[in-house]
Amino acid sequence: MAVSKQASSAARLMKQGLLKDAAIEFERALKQDPKDAAALLGLARLRLAQHDEPAAREVLQRLVAQHPTHPEALSHLARLDAEQGDARQLAVLEALAAQPKAGFFEVVNHGRALLAHHQYPAAIAALEKALALQPGNAQTLTYLGMALQGDKQLDRALKLYLEAAEASRTEHLPLLLAARVQVLKDQVGAALQTLQKAILRSPRETALIREFATLCFVAGAPEPAIKAAIDIRLQQPDNADAIYLHGLASFVAGKDADADRILREALAKVPDNAMVRIALAKVRRRMGDDAEAQKLLEAAHTSDPSDVGAANDLAVLLMSKPGGAANARAVLAPALQAHPDDAGLHLNQALALADSDKAQARTHAQKAQASTDKHVREQADRLAAALAGK
């Protein structure tokens, strides 16, 4: 396949990471020769790198119209279809990757499609083959890490994510994925450090900052969460989610007056938002205002009776009042029907039934004992023991 001067120039720009300039050069080459196969392939790769799949598909179809057996173009198209749910394309990709002269893209596309269909062992084998063709390729390291994580090989996945981060030096995704694995391995402190590195790479990626703030709650470090929320608000002053996050972090930090003010600001922007109502109710309860807390929780529960947070918090509030157990049971019932495996709902239903139906209370307490949450499990253990002794 002959390569035009413009296509060669565009390819060099693309390797340097100058994607906009490369796109201009590819388009210029195609204006001169609409059938320039090298320019079509280069532009398709560029659009794929930009995650502009519709544009990439259009260019690839133009290439295939001229070269119906072009293996890489067929591979890209099959992978796009496979990732949209077309499992039939897996056989096409397998055949393309098995060709004696199969290139890197044919092999890596096969691995990515297998990964999208959760066929992790097969994806691992394909992506390892792709990595052998391009050692140190950051994207392949990332995809292989994802396949290993899907296969529950967390240590290997974490190692590859960190290798991918080192290979790319600019991409935040490998670091984000590494942090999530560290959380799964109960390495919360390390995960926070990894997320901070990711944020340095993409400081305007608010989803990263939000994930960092949420992890700060898990680590019991609300002050960094407050700072992260403020960073988002500075970038997006009208972002109600960032305001909510700021208020929640202030609540966790024990700054009730700040939390009350900030969450009311969030509620003014999203008056029907259940999460904001539930958070503000927590603040009002801690400030001794159960009446407003109950109104907020009742509004959230009425809006969505299956909401776990509203049902649990309202049930706990109701049970704190004389004769409130029956009302608590009524609140919990629809949420339990929608979420039959939620341990917190089972625990609260057991508490609400403890004085009226000990057999049913024991059943719910036993289900709560299966919780992965240590605090829920410990409460359920104590309740089950008390009910057994009655």
UniProtKB/TrEMBL annotation:
Question: Which intervals of the chain form a coiled coil?
Answer: none
What keywords tag this UniProt record? Answer: Repeat, TPR repeat
InterPro entries (alphabetical): CellSynth/LPSAsmb/PSIAsmb, TPR-like_helical_dom_sf, TPR_rpt
Q: Which domain of life is it from?
A: Bacteria
The UniProt entry, under Gene3D superfamilies, shows:
Tetratricopeptide repeat domain
Query: Which SUPFAM superfamilies does the entry link to?
Result: TPR-like (SSF48452)
| Descriptive protein name | Uncharacterized protein
